[in-house]
Amino acid sequence: GDVLVFAASSVKEALEEACDAWSERSGNRAVISLAGSSTLARQIQAGAPADLLLSANENWMNVLEADGLLREGTRTDLLANSLVVIAGDPAADPLDLLSPDALATRLGDGRLAMALVDAVPAGIYGKAALETLGLWNSVAPRVAQADNVRAALALVAAGEAPLGIVYATDARAEPRVGVVATIPADTHPPIRYPLAVMNDAGAPAAELARFLAGAEAGEIFRAHGFEIPAQGAQ
Amino acid sequence: MTLGLSAEAWAAVGLSLKVSFWAVLLSLPLGIATAYLLARGRFPGRQLLNGLVHLPLILPPVVTGYLLLLTFGRRGVVGAFLYDTFGIGFAFHWTGAALAAAIMAFPLMVRSIRLSIEAVDPGLEQAAATLGASRLRVFGTVTLPLVLPGILAGTILAFAKAMGEFGATITFVSNIPGQTQTLPSAVYAFLQVPGAEGSAIRLVVISVVIAMSALVASEWLARRMARQRGAT
Amino acid sequence: MTLGLSAEAWAAVGLSLKVSFWAVLLSLPLGIATAYLLARGRFPGRQLLNGLVHLPLILPPVVTGYLLLLTFGRRGVVGAFLYDTFGIGFAFHWTGAALAAAIMAFPLMVRSIRLSIEAVDPGLEQAAATLGASRLRVFGTVTLPLVLPGILAGTILAFAKAMGEFGATITFVSNIPGQTQTLPSAVYAFLQVPGAEGSAIRLVVISVVIAMSALVASEWLARRMARQRGAT
Amino acid sequence: MSLSVELTHRRDGFTLQAGFESPDGVTALFGHSGAGKTTVVQAVAGLLQPDAGRIAVGDWVLQDSATGHWLPPHRRRVGYVFQDGRLFPHMSVGRNLDYGRRMNRRARDPAQERRVLDMLGIEPLLDRHPAGLSGGEQQRVAIGRALLSTPRLLLLDEPLAALDAARKEEILPYLERLRDEARIPILYVSHSMAEVARLATHVVVLREGQVLRSGSASQVLSDPATVPALGPQEAGALLAVRVEQHHEDGLTTLATSAGTLLLLGVAAPPGTRLRVRIPAHEVILALEPPKGISALNILPARVLALRPGDGAGMMVQLESGTDRLLARITKRSALALGLEPGRECHAIVKSVAFARSDIGAGGAV
Amino acid sequence: MSLSVELTHRRDGFTLQAGFESPDGVTALFGHSGAGKTTVVQAVAGLLQPDAGRIAVGDWVLQDSATGHWLPPHRRRVGYVFQDGRLFPHMSVGRNLDYGRRMNRRARDPAQERRVLDMLGIEPLLDRHPAGLSGGEQQRVAIGRALLSTPRLLLLDEPLAALDAARKEEILPYLERLRDEARIPILYVSHSMAEVARLATHVVVLREGQVLRSGSASQVLSDPATVPALGPQEAGALLAVRVEQHHEDGLTTLATSAGTLLLLGVAAPPGTRLRVRIPAHEVILALEPPKGISALNILPARVLALRPGDGAGMMVQLESGTDRLLARITKRSALALGLEPGRECHAIVKSVAFARSDIGAGGAV
Ligand SMILES: Nc1ncnc2c1ncn2[C@@H]1O[C@H](COP(=O)(O)OP(=O)(O)OP(=O)(O)O)[C@@H](O)[C@H]1O
Ligand SMILES: Nc1ncnc2c1ncn2[C@@H]1O[C@H](COP(=O)(O)OP(=O)(O)OP(=O)(O)O)[C@@H](O)[C@H]1O
Ligand code: MOO
Ligand SMILES: [Mg+2]
Ligand SMILES: [Mg+2]
């Protein structure tokens, strides 16, 4: 039968491709419902008929796990990602994040586009990284927070903000922006996309979960810029 | 004719039409009744009712969706009752999208109708009463027909709003292709992919064309009614 | 009195009030003019104007926000011109939030006013003309005062909508605490975080109280106007 | 059936306190603009709930504030012709006319419909909408709508004011028939004494919300004391007469209590009881019956009272047989003729002096 | 100033094709309901743009479809009293009255305001709103509003229909003064011949959108051929007279071309030119002047023409001095008196037979 996958919006294309591959193989269909991680989590709390959840937000996954909504032992960190600083010009000069003034100087009176720094994962990680780098206090007043990473990306792509902090995967997909710096992974908690099978899910769901964690799907995710975390890192 | 859109996208168009149609059709009687109460009623709690009707307009749509989820969700008070008693389920079903659209469009519908009712000359209703029409029949034979252009306008406005509703819908019934993925949800999904703006724009154009056609048709109908009344 | 809300949340409340106030106030003259054109005008392109006005209602708010970004952004056609010529910038500024709110609320405002204008007896305008009033003065002395309750209703409706606007605003001007973080943006942020529902709900209640007060006040004012006219 | 009204209603600046009983037929409400006529009519229709009062048609009580009884408008079966039209703009004239029948779920009555359409001359308008009608056309349709609802009580608020004399002439006989045959009580607001005299069995004169005079039409109209309230040109007596004979030259003799009157163009068959209004200013007084004169009616009369007016006029009340007459002459003539109470004289009235609107069908006077 | 109107306008089912010239003063538009009177008035006001036509007041052209000239309503300075009130509901009566002055940016004229307020009796209403007024009160305010806008042209569409006789009597002299002193052309729609005769210098009879008759008031009204269009009770001649003397007993002698008339209650000083309407049905014919009779006016006359009516009536046109008179008598009387063209006789009219509304001030007849 069909498998209903609830997935964070930011994994749309990669997940679709992987699911298509699985459908061809298994003859089952995967239906993907995309929304923000918090929305998905709340819907599952309210009894949504999801079979699988691929979230971009570990906190919400923790909540669902605590509520006993996840099938025991099925939670894995399926994907990992990294943060980059982008500029609205594909050929922009690289930026040295270790120099204390470089970011602020490059911004000038422009804005640094990020996802919501206290609510949305990409924003939370970005803020953590800037704090670790000792840059947060100087740029905080210049941060423009979008409701999700894609919106932050759009602000930079449209030339509205000179710089932005987004996932590496987002930066790859948008030709109007260029990566000017990669944020060191050790400046923020690891960026993980947890996957879990829901309690009421049928057999095909577990099968899809296994497929997504397998090598073939891994290739597809890598092709879209995601990283595959070492297993057992939950 | 695919206009470069996937079957999924076309399914979203079809679903949005279905959702908006039923949302508007089923909420219309309630909308007319509420508008009449607000326009002509003198009862305690009128202001409360008025406020309640406007609530979806005031709240950020996400909040409305969230409240719907809490109320009409499978574990919500009303939702559980309806499901257990009548087998009616809204959660994650297209009917839920219709409910969300209806609630979001309701204030607009009621506003339009109410203004038209207030513009009806009470002298005409009095005249009908002296000719033997009970309050109900006065409403049916005088008030309602005079308000028809307003009802038409309100209905189409509500339809247009329902076609564009996104926040409450995605929060309440999620974004399941073929089941709850309406046109705006599909647009949202496309917007999540850099470079898919083309598809998003094509969908938006379709939605605009549909809503505009409805608007223009309703304007034309309203003028026709007015003209018919105006002379000969 | 903090009601358990942070200074930042209170700033959002204040900003939303400011944004909604200016959005409504500045769009009002244009709203009245547009409503008048749509109600009484007979010109080619009337239907086009009508459609344009309704666009923000039909489009998913995110799309409207995106279009605003493309048009009024710093690199947008209009935005660049306004910035270079008058130094008016919308990007990441509360004025941009007001612009977004105004545009989203505009169809509601125009609808209300237009319906009231259509309810004005043209016989009264004719009478004013025979007494020497030019078209403009007929409008100012007869049409406008008669339409005042409709304008009031439309204004408050627009205000309520502006208070609740989220999608277009955050897409266009993002969320900068103290500058563009409106009440709905703050609510949205709270809703993203597990366990912050309490703060979200407190903010929602504040927003509802404000909008409801405005609605009730406007109803009361409209009734007063009607009563004053009705007798003595 | 009798109409009994007793009302108290306060509005700022205006207090209505009016009570009258009209034994039968048509009650004319007379009074200056703003006197409260429409207010009374609205209360009878149930469109205005007065502070206190009792309204009854025969023993059918429409309202009694003592018992708290109040019948809603749609149960009162009134045919109300409003001062301001109030046609339904979304219905054709035909559907407007048919509305009352439909609301009361009655079968069509084609003969009645034909009568009303012909009388009002509105057949050509049936498919039109009210917005396209002239002022008088609208009023005619409004009258038709009220009549076709087969009311038990007719309320007419200046129904004929917008119509020309010829049209009035066609409608008045129909109202007379309604009064006499269908025996529907009619409350009639009008500024025209000719209309009032022709139709009314009872006249109520209102003034600033109070009843100034109320009584039978003949009493109120032939009483010189009423003259100031009506205006001297409107004064005149009502005579009950019987049709005697139609002559070949088109004249008709009418029998009065004191002799015969010769009138032109009376259509009723011999034996019919009619009412004739003789306006006071139409009556000439002579001591001897004159000769070689075109006026054909000479009634013997005796002076009852003389009431001088403000100016040069004088109102003379006469007894002729058992009828009362009013004559308005100049003081100079009264002096020249030596008129005084008890004096015998002759009242001369032209045959053509009776406007057709002064001749009403049947009814008590 | 003269008013010249030439109009063609088609509506489905109705075609207006009317042209008339009225040399000066008041033009009465007379005609059945639906004849097109309001349509003409609206075209003159500029509220209806006729298919073709020319409208001018003196040499001020309001519209000329030949040249494409068309003056918008607010530039025409018309004072229009609508058949249906149209007071501004959001303004007090006072502000309604003041509206025209404000729109034309003129200074207040307290004397004029006082005159109009007193005449219409609307001073107590100044602070009220139209919705709270009775039908007649609304109409009076509408008249006041039109008058106070100091118009160059007055358009009155049945302005007095809702008013009682006493109130009409107060308003008519004012309209006469406007006509004579301010020399404002007035287009006057009315169903009342008394009003028309009193005011009109010119009468236009419309019928189904066509001009049936148009001419000076005295011509149209004293022409027996007009009778069918007006109705026999409305027929009557207009006489130009001069006030001669006021007597102690309140009577006034008026000089006519053939003798004197004795009337009551004429207020104008000796020498004033007046117009007097003598309704045809008020005139008695006699071969010899009668004696011992209360009627005080006996004018020598000569029969010009006899025009039998449909029934028993006969219309007699008389020449008395240079004036024309109309008398309506029975065929039987005509036979008995042996009336025929050329025959000398006496026309007898009671002094009180002149309704006050039949006596108009000045103006040409
Ligand atoms: N708006 C309209 N549309 C179409 N026909 C109309 C309209 N107004 C009036 N008519 C028609 O035009 C004709 C003339 O109307 P008009 O109002 O001029 O009559 P009138 O002489 O003023 O009558 P009344 O004395 O009843 O007021 C009538 O047949 C009427 O039905
Ligand atoms: N809705 C109202 N509110 C307050 N006062 C009113 C209202 N309607 C009428 N009046 C007042 O009540 C009084 C009586 O009005 P009504 O309409 O009964 O007069 P009417 O005798 O019918 O006069 P007309 O002959 O002018 O129609 C008037 O003084 C009027 O101003
Ligand atoms: O996919 Mo998210 O919820 O925008 O981080
Ligand atoms: Mg009245
Ligand atoms: Mg008319």
From TrEMBL, chains B, C:
Name the residues that span the membrane: 20-39, 51-73, 85-106, 138-160, 200-222
Family membership noted in the UniProt record = Belongs to the binding-protein-dependent transport system permease family. CysTW subfamily.
Q: What keywords would UniProt list here?
A: Cell inner membrane, Cell membrane, Membrane, Molybdenum, Transmembrane, Transmembrane helix, Transport
* PANTHER family to which the protein is assigned, alphabetical: MOLYBDENUM TRANSPORT SYSTEM PERMEASE PROTEIN MODB (PTHR30183:SF3)
- From the Swiss-Prot or TrEMBL record, state where the protein is found: Cell inner membrane; Cell membrane
> What is the source species?
Aliiruegeria lutimaris
Q: Which InterPro entries does the record associate with it?
A: MetI-like, MetI-like_sf, ModB_ABC
> Any one cellular component term from GO for this entry?
plasma membrane
Its biological purpose is as follows: Part of the binding-protein-dependent transport system for molybdenum; probably responsible for the translocation of the substrate across the membrane.
Q: Does the keyword Ion transport apply?
A: no
Its main subcellular localisation, reduced to a broad class, is membrane
Return the protein name. Answer: Molybdenum transport system permease
What are this entry's molecular-function GO terms? molybdate ion transmembrane transporter activity
UniProtKB/TrEMBL annotation, chains D, E:
Under the heading InterPro entries, the entry gives: AAA+_ATPase, ABC_transporter-like_ATP-bd, ABC_transporter-like_CS, Mo/tungstate-bd_C_term_dom, ModC_ABC_ATP-bd, Molybdenum_import_ModC, Mop_domain, P-loop_NTPase
TM annotation in the entry:
none
One of the record's GO cellular component terms: membrane
In this protein, which residues make up the domain named ABC transporter? Answer: 2-233
Q: Does the keyword Nucleotide-binding apply?
A: yes
Entry keyword annotation includes Methyltransferase: no
Mop domain: residues covered = 292-358
Q: Name one GO molecular function term.
A: molybdate ion transmembrane transporter activity
What is any Pfam family matched here? ABC_tran
Instruction: Specify the superkingdom.
Output: Bacteria
SMART domains per record: AAA
- What keywords were assigned to this record? ATP-binding, Cell inner membrane, Cell membrane, Membrane, Molybdenum, Nucleotide-binding, Translocase, Transport
Q: What is this protein called?
A: Molybdate transport system ATP-binding protein
